[in-house]
Every structure is written in C-alpha cells, then in structure tokens.
Amino acid sequence: MHHPGPPRFVATGDEVELAPRDPDPSATYTWRLTRAPVRSTASLGDDPVEHLVPDAPGRYVVRLSAPDGEHDLTVRAFPGDLHSSGGYTSGRSGGRSGGVSGGQSGPGRSGSGEYTQAGDDTGGGGRPRLSLRPAIEGDEAVVRADCSSHPEGSETAADLAVEFLLDDRDDIDKDAVTREGATLRIPLDALPERARIHGVAVGEYGYSVPDAVEFTRTADGVETVASGAGVAARRPYVAPSWAEDSTIYEIYVRTFAGDSDESPFDAIIDRLDYLDSLGVDVIWLTPVLQNDHAPHGYNITDFFEIASDLGTRADYERFVEAAHDRGFKVLFDLVCNHSARTHPYFESAVDNPESEYRDWYAWRSDTEPETYFEWEHIANFDFDHLPVRRHLLDAVAQWAELVDGFRCDMAWAVPNGFWREIHDYCKDRDSEFLLLDETIPYIPDFQAGLFDMHFDSTTYAALRQVGGGSDAEAVLDAIEGRAEIGFPDHASFMLYAENHDETRYIVDYGREAAEAAAGALFTLPGAPLLYAGQEFGQRGRRDDLAWDHADETLQSFVGDLSAVRHDQPALSAEADLVRIPYEVRDGPSDRVVAYARTTEDDAAVVVLNFGSEPTTVGLPIETDETDLVSGDHRGAGGDSDGTAVTVDSVAVFPAGSSDLRQ
C-alpha cells in the first residue's frame, strides 16, 4: 500500500515530507491539496516526493494518486508560536531548509565537547505532554488522554485541550465516533479490522508530542494492553516490554577478539557465556556490512552483503542463532543517511554526470557530495529520489528478518517520514521489534512513531560534567530534563557513559568516578549500555580489547550492579525516580548524589559518590544498611532519625515504599 502514513501534527512554517510508501520507482505518483485553510497559499509540485509547508493554522488534506488508488493524508497545523522544535535547526539532506516535523534535526556540540540541548524560551511554560490509554469497555473502544502540563509552566492539566485525529488509512465510520473532552469512544460494531487514533495535547505555549493507539480484530502475536469482545488494543509508540529493562552491550566488531586469531563472529559466540554472566540482555554490533577502509564500518559499499573481512552471511546468521539460543536479543546497526564514496553507485555518479545514479545523491558541486561535519569518506543520499528509498527499504526488509531491532545511525540526518515508514513496516511484522535512535541531542518528536528508545545524550553529558567536577545533582537534573523538553512519560531511553565515538570514562575521570557513573547507568530510569571493555577498565576507545589484562575486580563490580538492577523491582522501568534530602557528612558534598526509585510495593535508595574517598551520608528515612551491590553492611551509626551510611562509589539500600511516597 502506497499510503503516505499517519496524520501529521505540525506548526505553520514546518515542512511535511510527502512520500509514497513501498514505492515502485517506475510508477507515477502525483500529489494535490484537496483541503486547506482559507488563508493558505500553500501549494505542491509534480514530483513523487513533495514537501508541504503549511502557512496558516488549520487542517490540510493532501491526496496521493498512486498505482493502487488514491490516498488522503491529514495534516493539522497549529499557529507558528506553538512550534515544537525547542530551538532546533533542521534541514533535509541536500542542504534545503525545513522544519523539524518534516525534515530532520542536527546535533549541537559546545566547544567543550559537551552536548547542548535547546530549552524553552516562552517565558510562561513549554510543551505539554500526553499519553493515550486505550480500553475496551462494554461495547465500546475507548481512548483516554492523560495530559501533563510543562513541569515548570504556569498551566495545569485542566488548561490543556486534546485534539484527536483518526488515521486516514483506516475505514472508520466518523459519524459513529464521539469525543468528550479528553475521551474518544467508538462502538465496537463500527470498528474496521484496524483502527488507529492519534492525539495531541494543546496549551497556550505549545502542543505535545503526538501519541497513538490501535484497535484490531485480529491481534495474534501482538503485544496488547487491553482486549475484549474480540477486539485488542495496543500502544504502537511504546517500546517493547523487554527493552528498557535490558542491559545493552555494544561490540565494536573488529576489535572484540583482542589479539586472538578467531574470526570476529566466532569470538563473540565464544564469549556469550561471559556476556550472560554480566547480565547482558541485548547485543549491539557496530555495522557488519561491506564497507570501505574504515574499520568502524559506517561507510557502506553494499547494503546487502556482510563485510568480507568479518565472514559470510552464514557466519553472521550463525552468530544470531547462537545469541537467540542463549536468550539474547540482537541489534543491527542500520545506516540509512549515506553510502561510502567508494560505493559503486557513487563512483558511477561522480565519474559520469549522465549516470543513472547521479540522482541518488545530494550534491554541493559537480564533484562534491553533501556530507556532515566535512566527513570526506561518505556521500549523503537524496531521499527525494524514489530508487534510494526502494533500495534502503529492501535492505531493511532483508536484515529485519534476522534480528530483534535496529540501532539507527545518524537518525537526525534521515527524513522523519522515512523513519515512520521503517517503524510501521517493522512493527507490522513484529510488534516487539525495537527501534533505537542515535540523535544528539535527543528530539522529543522522534517518540511519535519513529523510534521506541533514544540515546540519552543529555544524561551522558551530565555524567561527563560530573566526572569533571560539576555538582553530582546534575544527573538528576538531566533525567528531569526529559519531561521539561517534552518527552511523554512513556518514552524510553538508553543510558551510556561511553561508546565507540567517545573516550573511555575511566581514562578521563578515574576509577572511582567510573564506578559511580556505572552506578548511575544501572540505577537511573533507562536501559544501561556497556561498551565492550568498559566493564573491565579498557582504556583504548577502539583498540583490541585487552582481555588478558582485564581488571577482574571492576568486572565483578559491574556484574553485581547488573544483577541488582535485574533483581530489584524498584530499579525496573516501572519505578519512579524520587528526589530525597540527604546530608554529606565528610568529603566534598558536590561529589555525592542520593535518590530513590519506587514502585507501589518496592523502594530503594541509591547513593553515588564520584569522589576519590569514601564518604558518610545521612539519609532521611530508615533503610536496610546492607548494600545490595557489595553485600556489605554500610551503616555508619550514630543516627537516631534516619540512616547514616558510608559509601565508596555506589550503594543501593532497600527501603520502605510508603516512606518515600508520602
């Protein structure tokens, strides 16, 4: 089906990419506006991929004429002063400017190498947040919108309006649908085989990240949240249940074996027992496809073949099968933005202006392609060209069959509409497939049907700042920053302190701080990432892993952290983060942070010490004085109102949930 996908919520001035899905490059596709606000002068051209820029608030309907019929897409445009970008700049590959909702957003880095995150500058609040909750109640399908105002704003949830849009792809009887405030109802006998409902919360200062729910009559094998009367409901924009409670392990494929002569995939298979002992659940390999001279593998020369220096497709499949047999999930590193300049298609395009591949790429000049950061070995694809989309979608289909998710490289540099298509394709074939985006800084709107989980670059930056001497409370500010920038409560994140692009934390900040940073990864809300070698003190970023020189004490410590996180419900994805008062009784107070994680029935207090010496911390509540990580008694004594504990780098103490929820 060539329908261009779900309805879009944008602000005037944002750009909406319009592209047929599952395109046939040889077919004819045309667009026209069939509805627009009276004051709008927006128009569309004659290309198969078009870009609509709403210029007046209201509802737009665009119609795609395709080989399989005509398809309508609704675009709801809000006034420009409700713009959702949060200060990001954006533009499509090829150098044209565009809005966040339709194009892509780029990364920002300060001169110190820390990531920058644009904040709210409205002076009165910021983006509200919304989560849609589906239910089957009697003979009705019901959707309720849970709204939250901006954490620092003057609005309340009662001040927010909710707008629902029915999905244009579904044959829903609109006359049967009733809306009352933040609730929508559809009689079950009016539901088609599939019904998708989208919504946003709208306030004086902005509109929320959209959310969606889906009702189906045939939902076998689909992860559902409600069912009844032969109808099931699910939340397609929520990460699969296995994801955020997982520990993710990144492997830089070509150096993992160390100085062994083993093939890369065999080396990983042989260490699956080791990864299991660390409590690893998910294995992410850096790119495994045929590539140019760069050992990182991100400059791809063939999107359908395993790199010859790594082995064959059969070798890769053998690794995946071995990992699955042991209960691991596998992430495939998906690169869509560019190819290597040594890709045969680019070589043809640059050598011959008449080549059929000339239109595959975006160009700065006759011989120089568009790229980012002046990277000299890659060339950006032009996603306005249907053969590019077809080629990459075919690659997605090939590799999605084998793995459990995609880690999506340079996600900000690929049109949002293309990611939406990949998201829907992957979820339709496996509702528990994971889409993890590398976007720096993170972008709240990527939660709306593009990705399930996001690199938490803000917490990464905070951990680096704390390692360098900033107040340790910054890690809590970073977590709270998720809501402040507009992420809904159901958003999921991957926490990391290092990866193949970053220097080793232990090199920059020392052993004690590295332990505390690891403690943050395993106890704050989010899925922790371990970059291979991090757990045993590897110092080189992309060097051969020094297995023979592993710090076994650190290795054991990380394994204990992982075990505690898996074993304690208070550290699960369902647990809240609660700030608590605490008193640092010796040593620098800004090197220590304490907080609680709580569910209805369980709670734990976490103390992180980024300093070089043990410190005594007074906690305001009674806790068990036995540290769950080390198993040691940490009570310092002499405290009649609460608990005093001594902490080296990380400690986790069981506590009463009711004490922390008062």
Describe the protein in words:
The chain has 662 residues and is of the alpha/beta class. The protein is built from twelve helices and 34 strands. The strands form nine sheets. It has an eight-stranded parallel barrel, surrounded by four helices. The N and C termini lie far apart (53 Å).
Reported for the largest beta sheet, the result is: 8 strands, parallel, barrel
Helix content: 10-25%
Trace the largest sheet across and list its strands.
16-17-20-23-24-25-26-27
Q: Helical region count?
A: 12
Secondary structure: number of strands: 34
- Judged by helices, strands and strand pairing, the structural class is alpha/beta
Mean pLDDT reading: 91
Strand content: 25-35%
- Give the overall shape: globular
Low-confidence stretches: 86-122
- End-to-end CA span: 53 Å
Q: What is the radius of gyration?
A: 25 Å
GO molecular function: alpha-amylase activity; cation binding
Protein name: Alpha-amylase family glycosyl hydrolase
InterPro entries: A-amylase/branching_C (IPR006048), GH (IPR017853), GH13_alpha-amylase (IPR053556), GH13_cat_dom (IPR006047), Glyco_hydro_b (IPR013780)
Keywords: Hydrolase
A few lines on this structure:
With 662 residues, the protein is an alpha/beta fold. It is built from twelve helices and 34 strands.
List the helices and strands and how they pair.
Layout (H helix, E strand, L loop, with lengths): L7 E4 L4 E3 L11 E6 L14 E3 L5 E9 L2 E10 L50 E9 L2 E9 L12 E6 L11 E3 L2 E5 L6 E9 L8 E6 L9 E3 L2 E4 L13 E4 L12 H7 L1 H6 L4 E4 L3 E3 L8 E7 L6 H13 L3 E6 L3 E3 L3 H8 L26 E3 L5 H15 L4 E4 L7 H14 L4 E4 L15 E3 L1 H11 L6 H12 L6 E4 L9 H5 L1 H13 L3 E5 L20 H16 L8 E4 L3 E2 L7 E7 L4 E7 L5 E5 L23 E5 L2 E6 L1 H5 L1
Parallel strand pairs: 1-6, 16-17, 16-27, 17-20, 20-23, 23-24, 24-25, 25-26, 26-27
Antiparallel strand pairs: 2-4, 3-5, 5-6, 7-8, 8-11, 9-12, 10-11, 12-13, 13-15, 14-15, 18-19, 21-22, 28-30, 29-32, 30-31, 31-34, 32-33
Helix pairs in contact: 1-3, 5-6, 7-8, 10-11
Protein name: Alpha-amylase family glycosyl hydrolase
Pfam families: Alpha-amylase (PF00128), Alpha-amylase_C (PF02806)
GO molecular function: alpha-amylase activity; cation binding
